[in-house]
Amino acid sequence: MKVTEHIKNAKSTIFSIEILPPLKGKSIKEIFDCIDPLMEFKPPFVDVTYHREEFVYRKRASGYLEKVSIRKRPGTVGICAGIISRYKVDPVPHLICGGFTRHETENALIDLSFLGIENILVLRGDARKNEGSFIPEPEGHHYAIDLMAQVTAMNHGKYLDPDLNHADQTNFCIGVAGYPEKHFEAPNLKVDLHHLKRKVEEGADYIVTQMFFDNQKYIEFVKACRDLNITVPIIPGLKPITTRSQIANIPKSFYLDIPEQLTDEIMKCKNDEEAKQVGIEWCIQQSKELIKYGVPCLHYYTMSKPEPVVKIARAVF
Ligand code: FAD
Fold it and tell me: DSSP letter string over the chain?
């Protein structure tokens, strides 16, 4: 079933999660060990992130360095198949522009459609670690909206080969990313919202937000979207802080602010265990407030560590 249908049919706020494929060499059991304890809260859909290749330098016998491309976390499509067969819930694979030509994207969409997958979160992806800015593949997409246009075209039976007549129409419900504290490359929130509105006009069915720690940021973002006539559901993404170092690392990686009260409380913690308790409590309060505000769904970034989210869900759902 589509994410939008789950939202429409729900009588109260839905619980959902995002998981990461395990590092290459690990088994799918790692994913099941993460999802198993969270099934108690009946997530109707589970997002599975996509991780593109990275370049690493390996020393050859000659002493020269060799640039090698590796994907540290492959397996998104296989994990989606595993989720369907084990839990009978809807997986939401993330699909990115980075690393894909249009033809590779088309083939990936065909695979997903054959698996019976009806939801996709369409994203651009970040720049590779050693590249300053995002570089699309030759014949690839530059922005999420361009990738979306390909998905919506396939939903209308339009594939890349112009001679292909009466091609099967895929049936994807399309989610896109939104940034309550603005995407870091956008010059300001107004411009970022303009691009978000275009994604919705192009056919995005719902928005999932980047994590935030101050609910006011989400509420203002939703208001700004509604003022622009962006009417699709806006699902808040939440992540509990679990270590002391995250109050420095999260703003650096995700370009967002952590409220003073939360940083003050984390800085008082003597170890990561105490910090995790503070992070869980903060996330419980955020979740309860957002439910009161009437959010359609609370989407938790598990980072494939279920325990903090289990504690939050027990207190909230
Ligand atoms: P876009 O919507 O393309 O926007 C990127 C930037 O370009 C923004 O600043 C926007 O304002 C601007 N822009 C958009 N369209 C245009 C245009 N036509 N012309 C000029 N400027 C434009 N990354 C992964 O690699 N794998 C994942 O699984 C993954 N999951 C994510 C899940 C969520 C919920 C979120 C919020 C992010 C996720 N990301 C993931 C990270 C995401 O790929 C990055 O944040 C990326 O930098 C932007 O992706 P986007 O889809 O928002 O890009």
Answer: --HHHHHHH-SSPEEEEEE-PPPTTS-THHHHHHHGGGGGG--SEEEE-----EEEEEE-TTS-EEEEEE-SS--HHHHHHHHHHHH--EEEEEEESTT--HHHHHHHHHHHHHTT--EEEEE--PPPTTSSS--PPTTS-SSHHHHHHHHHHHHTT--S-TT--SPPPP--EEEEEE-TT--TTSSSHHHHHHHHHHHHHTT--EEEEEE-S-HHHHHHHHHHHHHTT--S-EEEEE----STTHHHHHHHHH-----HHHHHHHHT-SSHHHHHHHHHHHHHHHHHHHHHHT-SEEEEE-TT-HHHHHHHHHHH-
